[in-house]
Each structure stands twice: as structure tokens, then as C-alpha cells.
Design a protein that fits this description.
Elements lengths: L7 E5 L4 H12 L3 E6 L2 H13 L4 E5 L5 H15 L4 E4 L14 H26 L4 E5 L13 H21 L5 E7 L4 H9 L1 H8 L10 H13 L10 E4 L8
Parallel strand pairs: 1-2, 1-4, 2-3, 4-5, 5-6, 6-7
Helix pairs in contact: 1-8, 3-4, 4-5, 6-7
């Protein structure tokens, strides 16, 4: 039996990249997976991949920017699986640009898909998570870089998520809900696109990673989420865990 046997995990942005890796890792440890995303083909493919491996997964459509869809998808997941015991807030629209060049609509999209969607999903799942549930939100090392120039909008959204994480951990501990965040550095479609558009910057960044490589979404990032959702981390809450080969220095 896996360490998450009997758990139901709702993972947003699970149709590709880090979300897919996390969903597969949770499923490998026995969790039933609600594969949530806004592209039907992608979430359906991941759900089928998990089932082909012997797991239990179902695809759900949801654009986390839409509050009505957030409420609806949580209700649909509970209706299908009977409960939600793990929430992973991974979905996020990436926005880049220097502050004077960043369009306001792009900045707002980053905030709506990141901290606002995270807040809405945590609140919608709270009644189901009470009494032993776990939440893992995704932050980013962009928020703790000494110089986030060019990534301020994205970094601001990710740091807001870390504040929400710490606040929920404190406010909901009495409800039996643990809330943590990870700061992953993984070989994902978003990172591949960054490396294609900014190869010199990406190469310089990789040179600052002590372990000398990007993480694998399933083999490196996924197990950290499994740990934070399992009994082995029952005394850990409100924590931000870099999963990045040693690149970030948390203070």
C-alpha cells in the first residue's frame, strides 16, 4: 500500500509539466487523483496515463480564474470521489516583463490565476479538508531572488501565495488542516520556453544550481509533495520548501 492510500487529491494545472508530475507521484502512492486543468485533451491524457499505470484518476475541466468554475469543480470532484483530502494549487499563468513595460492586464492575469485562485480553491476545499487534510501551494524562487528584474509580476504573485500559505497554516491548524508550499525548479514546458527565448540567462541560472541540473517533475518534485501530504510530515505546516537542487537560500 502507498503512503497516500485512501486519499483524494485535487491537482490544478495537472495537464502538463509540474502539475502532471505531481499528480503521477501522488497516484503512485495510492491517492485517487482529480486531474484539473483548462484543456480537456491534456487533463484527459494525464488521467488515462495514471489509469494505465494502475491508478485511479478522472479529468475535470476548470479555468481557475473563473470563481464559478472553482466552486463547480470542487463540487464535481466531491461528487465523483466522495471527498477531497489533498489540494495542490499548481495552476498559474506566467507573466514576464519589466515593471514599466508590463501591461496591467497581464499583471492582473498573474494575480487572478495565482494567489486569487489559490485563495478561492483553499476556501472551497476547506470543509472537505477539515480533520486531516493537506494543502500544498506552489511558490517560486523568483520571489526570493536578490534581483527579480523582469519577473516582478510573477514574483509578486508567487510571494502572495506564500503569505496565503502561512496564514492558512496558522488559521486552519485548529481545523486539522496542514498548509505548506514548495518552490520547485523543474524541467517543464514553461522552463523549456524560457530557455528557448533567453538561452544565455537560462544557462547562467542553471550554473547557480549546486546539483547542476533541473529537477524531474515526477521523480524530484512529486516526492516532495507526497511527503508534505503524508503522515511523515504531520508536524510540518506553514513551511516553504525549495525543491530546486540547492539554488534558493531561504531566510
Amino acid at each position: 500500500m502507498g503512503v497516500l492510500e485512501g486519499k483524494v487529491a485535487l491537482v490544478t494545472g495537472a495537464g502538463q509539466g509540474v502539475g502532471r508530475g505531481i499528480a503521477c507521484a501522488l497516484a503512485a502512492e495510492g491517492a485517487r487523483i482529480a486531474v484539473v486543468g483548462r484543456t480537456l485533451q491534456k487533463v484527459s491524457d494525464v488521467a488515462q496515463e495514471i489509469r494505465d499505470r494502475g491508478g485511479d484518476a478522472h479529468a475535470f475541466l476548470c479555468d481557475v480564474i473563473d470563481p464559478a468554475q472553482v466552486e463547480s469543480v470542487v463540487a464535481d470532484v466531491v461528487r465523483h470521489f466522495g471527498s477531497v483530502s489533498i489540494l495542490v494549487n499548481n495552476a498559474q499563468t506566467t507573466v514576464h516583463g519589466r515593471l514599466l513595460d508590463l501591461p496591467e492586464e497581464d499583471y492582473l492575469r498573474g494575480m487572478e490565476s495565482g494567489p486569487l485562485a489559490t485563495w478561492r480553491l483553499m476556501r472551497a476545499c476547506h470543509p472537505h479538508l477539515a480533520g486531516g487534510g493537506a494543502i500544498v501551494n506552489l511558490g517560486s524562487a523568483a520571489g526570493v531572488r536578490w534581483d527579480p528584474s523582469g519577473y516582478g509580476g510573477y514574483a509578486a504573485a508567487k510571494e502572495a501565495i506564500r503569505v496565503l500559505t502561512r496564514t492558512a497554516a496558522c488559521e486552519w491548524a485548529a481545523d486539522g488542516i496542514r498548509v505548506n508550499a514548495i518552490l520547485p525548479l523543474a524541467d517543464s514546458p514553461a522552463l523549456e520556453e524560457w530557455a528557448r527565448l533567453s538561452p544565455v540567462e537560462a544557462g547562467e541560472y542553471l550554473a547557480t544550481v549546486p546539483l547542476g541540473r533541473y529537477g524531474d517533475t515526477e521523480a524530484d518534485i512529486g516526492p516532495a509533495v507526497v511527503f508534505l501530504c503524508g503522515e511523515a510530515s504531520r508536524y510540518i505546516t506553514g513551511h516553504s520548501l525549495p525543491v530546486d537542487g540547492g539554488q534558493a537560500l531561504m531566510r
